[in-house]
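Exercise: predict the structure of this protein bound to N-carbamoyl-L-aspartate.
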Amino acid sequence: MKHLISIEDLNKSEIIKILDKSEEFEYVALGKKSLDILRGKILANLFFEPSTRTRISFECAMKRLGGDVINVSTQEASSMAKGETLADTIRVVSNYCDAIAIRHPLEGAARFAAENATVPVINAGDGAGQHPTQTLLDLYTIRKELGKIDGTKIALVGDLKYSRTIHSLIKALTLFKTKIYLVSPEALELPKEFLEELSGNIEKTKLEDIIEEVDVIYVTRIQKERFPDEEEYRKVAKSYRITAEIARRMKEEAIILHPLPRVDEISVEVDSMKQARYFKQAFYGVPVRMAILTEVML
Ligand code: NCD
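Solution:
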């Protein structure tokens, strides 16, 4: 049984295989071609944290491939509100579907779900832990928009401490020949244990020192819900923002990505600039999740 819990569950060639497969699904994702390869299959979306893109793009991917989806979107709406454990919920839901996509506020919850499931489990975000399907679509976007991943210079900007999209992406990027710049307020720096276990070409820096040479700026929202203390959040709120003035200093062909949702870390005036690719990135979530779903279900 193939689970996808951490991006580390995949090696470089498995990642490339999924990106190649995603390419073939783009026409289907655009509705220009129809495919029925998941007919009769059901995905259970168990989303115990807010989500727009991830949950809906999983659903869209299933439906465009002929499959179906069951949605449970809050713990309050399931029997967990009556005291049922996550383990029991997963055991039961396994009998109603062919795979489970789970999002949960606790780090490690997706791994725990996989241990109790009898169908493949896909981690759609576990606390500040991992978000492997987002990473695959981020890599897909970089490859698609720049034509390559190897040889690129990528700045990871914002909340590097709590962003699971960063924790997943940085591990994947070190499998490629990339130069990674870490740009964040001091209180939101990448946790030390990460740096110790990563062996890539990584450097802490300021945005103004590298803005003219990077190929990708990957911006993240401050993960307000993960702060143990509201006061700590207030100290860093609004501490960075990509404006049109900053974006204009980037190389012609460089791109700005963001997993979304955006709060105030990219000004809306940037949206119409050619560097802005975050909405396109959100679309790529559909073909990439098609590739992931077919990989675990067929
Ligand atoms: C991200 C997440 O949930 O980690 N959103 C997403 O899945 N696209 C990023 C975020 O919430 O800031």
